[in-house]
Amino acid sequence: MASRGDASTAESASRTLVLAIDGTGRVVQCGPNARTVLGYEPADLIGRAVTDLAADEGKAKVEALLEALASGHEHPTALAVRRGNIGPDGEPSGGEGGTADAVVTAQPMVGAAGGTAPIGLLHVRVALPVSARYQDPALMRRALMDDQVTRFGASLDLDQSARGLVDVIVPHYCTAASVLVLESLVAADEVHSEAGAAPLRRIAVTSDDGNPMWTATFPAGEVLVYPEGTPYRKVLETARPVHLPHVDGEMSGEIAARWRRRPVRELLTGVSMVLLPLIAQDTLLGFIACTRVPGFRRFDAYDVEIGMEFATRAAIVIDNARRFSRERATALALQRSLLPHRLSAPSSVEVRHRYLPGSQLVEVGGDWYESIALPGARVALIVGDVAGHGVRAAVTMGRLRTALHTLANLELPPADALHVMHELMIELGEQEPHFATCVYAVYDATSGTLEVASAGHLPPLLAAPGGATEYLEVPPAPPLGVSGSATIESREFEVEDGSVFVIYTDGLVENRGRDIDDGLARLRGIFGEGATARPMEDLAKATLAGVYADHHRDDIAVLLARLRRLPEDRFGSWTLPSDPAAVRRARGLVRDRLDAWDLGELTHTTQLLVSELITNAYRYAPDEPIELRLLLERSLVCEVRDRSAALPRLRRAADDDENGRGLLVVSQLAHRWGSRRTATGKVVWCEQTIPGVDPEPYEPPSTWPGQNHHRD
C-alpha cells in the first residue's frame, strides 16, 4: 500500500502504461495494457491528444511534459489522469471512469524527426485501486522477495524479526497477518514436537484495513493452544499450508465457538485466509496467518505457492533468531550461575555492585566481581575481565573466579594470589589461548590500609571524604596468561575513613563512540566533591547512567566499597612476652574485654582457645614477642601473631603423644580457624559465633536493571 511509504511498496501497488507521442502532442502508439491501467481500449487512445487524458488542473503539467519532449529533456511530474470506463474484465463498467493519481515521466527519443513521427515516450504509472492490489501475482512475488527477507532478517532478535516479517507481508500479500511460534522456541529451549497441542505464542500482528479489532482479538504476546477442528490446529498437525478461499458465516461461527472467542466470527466472516507453516530443517517452528478482508481478490493456489516461498525464507530467519536467542540464553544462564549470589564484607565496610551483560550485538562476556570477608575485619575486593565473549569467556571466568575465591580464603596476599592465577592462565592457554585482566585489593578495617595489586587492569578509583578523587597508581603488570618477565607487585595505601573505592571493567569507560580517557574523566566526575556523602545505591546507579541505550555495549562489572575502620572499642590488641606466664596474662585480658562487651558467656571457651594459640606460638617462636588481638564483629575473632613463618598443621595425635592436641581442641571449639603469613611471620586465628547474631546476614538487594541476569 503506497501509504506505507517505501519504494518497493509503491512499485508493487502500481502499473505503468507507455505512450508514444508525436510532435503535435498526440498518441501514436500505445501499450497493450491500456485497459488495465487507464480503463481504455488501446484503439481509443491512438490519435488522441495527450492533454485530453489529464484532468483540468493537470493540463498545464502535460504541456510542460510536451515542451520537455520537444527540447529533448527528460521530465517527471505527478498529476491526475482521466480513467475510461472499461473494467479489468474487459466490459464497460458504466458511467465515467473518474480520475486516478499518476506519476508521468517524459522521455525524449534520440533522432526524432517531429511531425507525426514519435518524438518521445510518456511513462504513465498509475496507483492500483485498493480492490485490485493483489491482481498481479508477478508484482506480489517481486514485492515479497526483492531483498525483503534480507531487510527483516538483519536482526537476530526474534521479536524484531517477526515484526519486520508482518510489515512486509502486509500490505504486499494480505490485509492482516499474525506470526505464531512455538512457546518452547520463545523460551530459548529445544523445539518440542507436540503436534497440534503445542502451546504457541503470537509474537507479531498487524493489519492495514483500519479495523482495530484485529490487534484486540489476536493480541501480540498471547500464549494459547488452538482447539481441535480449527484450521489453525490443522496446519500444526499436518505442517502443510491450509487454504480457505472463502470463510462464510457458518465456518467463522464454528471457529469462534470452538475457540470460545466471539469476536472471531465477526472478523473472519467473508474473509479469504491462508495459513503458512514455518518449517526450518524439517522442524515446524510455527505459522503465519494471512487474511484478506472482503473487497480484495481471494487467495488462490498460486497465491499459496508464493506465500510458501516467502514462508520458507522467513522460517530460516526465525530459526536463526531462535538459535541465537538460545545460545545467548545459555551463555547468560552459565554466566549467572558463575557470578556470586551474595557479597560479604566487615560490618564497617559497605559494598555495592552492578553487572550488565553486553548488548545483543556484543554477546555475553567474561567480566566478574567479588567481595569476600576475611578474618580480622578484612575484605578482598576483586574485579576481573576475561578477554573475548560468549560461552568460552564465561567458562574461563568461572574457573578464574573459583580459583581466586579459593586463594582469597587461603589468605594469600594480592600479588601472590594474582601470580598463582597467572600460572593457571598459562596452563589453560596450552589448551586454548586465554588471557584476563584483574585487580585485587584487600582492605584492613582495623588499620585503615588498602593493599592493591593489578594485572593489566584499569586503575582503581579512590574518592576521599574531603573531595579529593584519584586513580591509584599500582605497579603495572601484564594481563594474566600473557607471557613476559614482569612480576606482579602490590602497593599499600593509607585510606581516609569513609572513602569510596571503585573498581570496574573497561565496558564502563570505553565504547565505540567514546575514548577511554573521556570515560575515565566521566567516572571521576561522578565521584567528585560530595560524592562520598551520597547513599551507595545512588552512586551505583550513577555509574551506569546512560549505558543501557548503547547497542554496542560490552559487559560491565562495577564494585563500590565505602571503607570505614572498625570502631576502636570493637577490638583490642596486646603485646605479650615470649614466656609461659603470658598465657595467664592473656586469659585475664580476655576476661576483662569480654566483660566489657557483655559476652561473659563466651569467656571460658575464649580463654581456652587463646591459651592453646599462645602456647603454640611460644613453642615455635620462643624468643620473639607475641601479639594478641580480639575483634568483635558479627562474630568474635581471636588472633595470635608471632615471628615464625611455619604455618600450623592440624593432625590427630596418637594416644601416647604428649603434644599435638592444641589445634584439635581449637578446631572443635571454634566455628572456624585458619592461619596466614605476614611480612614478619604469621597469624593464627579462630572465630566464634555470638549467640543471637548471624555471622553472615543476608540483606535483600534493591531492584536495579540487570540484576536478573545473575541473581536468583
Automatic annotation (TrEMBL):
It catalyses: O-phospho-L-seryl-[protein] + H2O = L-seryl-[protein] + phosphate. The keyword Lyase does not apply. It comes from the Bacteria. Keywords: ATP-binding, Hydrolase, Kinase, Magnesium, Manganese, Metal-binding, Nucleotide-binding, Phosphoprotein, Protein phosphatase, Transferase. SUPFAM superfamilies: ATPase domain of HSP90 chaperone/DNA topoisomerase II/histidine kinase, GAF domain-like, PP2C-like, PYP-like sensor domain (PAS domain). GO terms for molecular function: ATP binding; kinase activity; metal ion binding; protein serine/threonine phosphatase activity. InterPro entries: Bact_Sigma-Reg, GAF, GAF-like_dom_sf, HATPase_C_sf, HATPase_dom, PAS, PAS-like_dom_sf, PAS_fold. PROSITE patterns: PAS. One of its GO terms (biological process) is regulation of DNA-templated transcription. Its EC number is 3.1.3.16. Residues 82-101, 691-712 are annotated as: Disordered. Residues 18-73 form the PAS domain. Primarily acts as an independent SigF regulator that is sensitive to the osmosensory signal, mediating the cross talk of PknD with the SigF regulon. Possesses both phosphatase and kinase activities. The kinase domain functions as a classic anti-sigma factor-like kinase to phosphorylate the anti-anti-sigma factor domain at the canonical regulatory site, and the phosphatase domain antagonizes this activity. This is protein-serine/threonine phosphatase. The lineage of its organism: Bacteria, Bacillati, Actinomycetota, Actinomycetes, Streptosporangiales.
